[in-house]
Every structure is written in structure tokens, then in C-alpha cells.
Write the C-alpha cells for this entry.
Amino acid sequence: MNKSLKDIMISDPYSLTQDSMSVEATRLLVEHRINCIPVVDKTNTIVDILISYDILERTT
């Protein structure tokens, strides 16, 4: 089962902006059963990747 990344990636990934609220990030992570979400700027360029641990560590 050796596939290229283009064959397994989703074509329209979920993303957040730096102004997104942590509750929205948590909702996306839980609802879509994912562990990380790209954070994009106004030009849709990835500026960071938010991982579930970031939320747990910094909001509790």
C-alpha cells in the first residue's frame, strides 16, 4: 500500500486564521477527528500548524 501523498491528501483541507478562536479550533479537531490544522494568513499561506496539544497546554 505505497501511495503518493497526492493520493491520500484531501483537496480542500480545513484551516484556521490567526484570529480564529480556540473553541473553533477545538470544534474542528473533534468534529473531523484530526490532530492538527494549518493556520493561514490573509493570502492563504500557511504560517503555523496548530496541534491538539497546543490547545490542551495553553488553554487549561
Remarks:
- Residues 12-58 form a domain with the CBS-domain fold (CATH 3.10.580.10).
- The helical segments are 5-8, 22-31, 52-58.
- The mean pLDDT is 92.
- The radius of gyration is 13 Å.
